[in-house]
Task: inverse folding
């Protein structure tokens, strides 16, 4: 560009010295310029005193045309860069926001129309405008992705919580699962980068006024007024704080502050836990019975009951649980219609341990199940295959013994849930206490599914069965069908782990010691059930459909009819207090699925559910 401009300037000087009285160039059109040069040629012929060679005239002609072309580029550059920007703004925002973002973006784009003399400044401008465009493009892509995948804004609680709670391993697994969308969005970004790169360099170059009186540098009246008006509006946009905060640079730096603040708030919740322990002691829960009591709570992740043979699924994903069921009779209840009230882990566990109750009016937490259990004399274990800061601080640290199996560095297979079985066995054999609550937190079938079962342990990927045919009929894409095979293989391995946990509990201690076991998932998972997607799913019922199974060795469980009643995971703590045989004044029998007084109320979830009894 700078070369062109330089040539133009030199050439114009030559034209003036050699040609003399040339009509002023008012046209941006190269054709007009050529005509003009023609007349210059004629003028040269009519001026015998001047030393005008044909060569000089040709130089003149060429350079004048390129000077004129130069003057026409800025508008094209503004248009192309502006259109690219707008496309990405529309991608990530809607309604009034689009106009607001467009105004915030406008000044740098219009800068391209401002003639700059120095080539270095023009290069700097090109670089800055390019960065500007890419900032808006990244913003648009990030927002569009979150909206498309989770119907969530980046500053919503779910996304902030997930971002603050994610470690490097989880991020890698996430990318391995979602690389397809990553490729698509990266391609869009690369397109923007190339397009913007091509046009930002075509910004206006100034031609010295004395040297180039013939080249028009100013925009005509109407475009100029329009530019001024847009700039004025942009000033207003920047003056207003709520508008200004939408600017990608401000928004995302604020976002990263929020994520760090959240992480810092989680980093030490000892004081909060101390307060909640004191609260639990004040409630003074008491054991209903003397004697040994062992309760095992198995919380798994991302298990959709629709994929369990135990719930009637077409693939044999739960042979061991089915065997337990056949053997245990009325000691084991499979709650047919279990639902989570949340589609992601953090809110689901928050609800589970806090009885699904909201914060109190003065901002205090409702009682915590583990604090109550300890206040009632239970020794609590937290044995987890997750490595998760928020869950550790908000729940796990209430336990007397915290065992984060997955945190051991350098153990490649550590992420398989089977790794926790030894720890659970150890806890069950602990002779130091009579009353035990053992919480087991599994990875279950959390994405990436292929990492949730041992290598070469996928029996569902070789032949075409009814499930596969059904998915094809529903128009599910090949990769979603493959995810379904992996998901089901993860469930088969999960069946092994969960059955082992049940077996351990069934055979622990003396035969007549009281033991209970409850198993449920934090939330469900969409794997081509209701849409052509795989992953956490706040927007489809699959995101909330979970399994829930209860076993206890004394007192038969409610019969078939009672097991048909819908169950919700955010009320599970009411049932757990029953299993723990703890008496406290807060108990609400209407929310305890084991109580004859149980009354189902549908949870408020952002999905239209036809029937909770299906
Ligand atoms: Zn989860």
Result:
């Amino acid at each position: 560009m700078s070369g062109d401009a330089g040539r133009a300037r030199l050439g114009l000087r030559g034209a003036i010295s050699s040609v003399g009285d040339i009509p002023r160039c008012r046209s941006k059109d190269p054709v007009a310029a050529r005509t003009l040069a023609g007349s210059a040629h004629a003028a040269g012929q009519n001026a015998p005193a001047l030393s005008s060679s044909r060569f000089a005239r040709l130089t003149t002609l060429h350079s004048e045309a390129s000077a004129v072309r130069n003057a026409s580029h800025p508008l094209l550059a503004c248009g192309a860069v502006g259109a690219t920007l707008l496309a990405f703004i529309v991608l990530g925002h809607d309604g009034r926001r689009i106009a607001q973002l467009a105004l915030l973006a406008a000044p740098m784009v219009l800068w391209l129309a401002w003639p700059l003399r120095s080539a270095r400044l023009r290069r700097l401008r090109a670089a800055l405008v390019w960065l500007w465009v890419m900032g808006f493009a990244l913003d648009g892509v990030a927002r569009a992705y979150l909206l498309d995948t989770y119907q969530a804004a980046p500053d919503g609680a779910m996304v902030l919580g997930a971002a603050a709670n994610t470690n490097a391993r989880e991020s890698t697994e996430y990318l391995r699962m979602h690389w397809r969308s990553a490729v698509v969005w990266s391609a869009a970004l690369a397109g923007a980068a190339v397009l913007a790169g091509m046009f930002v360099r075509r910004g206006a170059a100034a031609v010295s006024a004395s040297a180039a009186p013939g080249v028009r540098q100013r925009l005509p009246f109407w475009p100029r007024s329009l530019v001024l008006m847009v700039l004025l509006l942009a000033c207003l946009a920047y003056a207003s704080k709520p508008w200004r905060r939408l600017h990608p640079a401000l928004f995302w730096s604020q976002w990263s502050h929020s994520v760090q603040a959240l992480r810092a708030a989680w980093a030490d919740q000892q004081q909060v836990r101390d307060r909640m322990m004191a609260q639990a002691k004040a409630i003074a829960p008491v054991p209903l019975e003397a004697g040994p009591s062992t309760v095992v709570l198995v919380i798994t992740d991302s298990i959709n009951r629709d994929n369990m043979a135990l719930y009637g699924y077409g693939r044999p994903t739960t042979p061991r649980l089915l065997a337990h069921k056949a053997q245990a009779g009325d000691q084991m209840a499979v709650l047919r219609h279990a639902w989570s009230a949340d589609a992601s882990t953090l809110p689901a566990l928050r609800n589970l341990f806090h009885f699904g109750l909201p914060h109190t009016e003065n901002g205090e937490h409702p009682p915590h199940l583990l604090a109550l259990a300890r206040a009632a004399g239970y020794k609590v274990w937290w044995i987890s295959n997750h490595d998760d800061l928020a869950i550790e601080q908000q729940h796990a640290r209430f336990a007397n013994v915290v065992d984060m199996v997955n945190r051991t560095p350098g153990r490649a297979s550590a992420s398989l849930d089977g790794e926790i079985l030894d720890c659970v066995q150890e806890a069950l054999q602990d002779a130091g206490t009579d009353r035990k609550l053992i919480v087991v937190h599994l990875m279950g079938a959390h994405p990436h599914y292929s990492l949730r079962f041992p290598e070469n342990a996928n029996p569902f990927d070789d032949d075409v069965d009814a499930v596969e045919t059904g998915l094809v009929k529903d128009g599910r894409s090949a990769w979603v069908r493959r995810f379904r095979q992996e998901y089901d293989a993860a469930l088969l391995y999960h069946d092994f782990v969960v059955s082992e946990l049940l077996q351990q509990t069934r055979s622990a201690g003396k035969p007549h010691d009281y033991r209970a076991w409850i198993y449920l998932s934090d939330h469900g998972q969409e794997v081509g059930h209701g849409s052509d997607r795989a992953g956490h799913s706040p927007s489809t019922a699959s995101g909330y459909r979970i399994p829930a199974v209860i076993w206890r060795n004394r007192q038969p469980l409610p019969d078939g009819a009672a097991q048909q009643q819908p169950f919700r995971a955010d009320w599970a703590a009411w049932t757990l207090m029953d299993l723990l045989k703890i008496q406290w004044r807060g108990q609400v029998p209407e929310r305890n699925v084991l109580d004859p007084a149980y009354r189902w109320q549908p949870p408020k979830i952002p999905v239209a559910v036809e029937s909770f009894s299906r």
About this structure: Residues 2-263 form one domain. The longest strand covers residues 293-300. The chain has two domains: 2-263, 290-591.
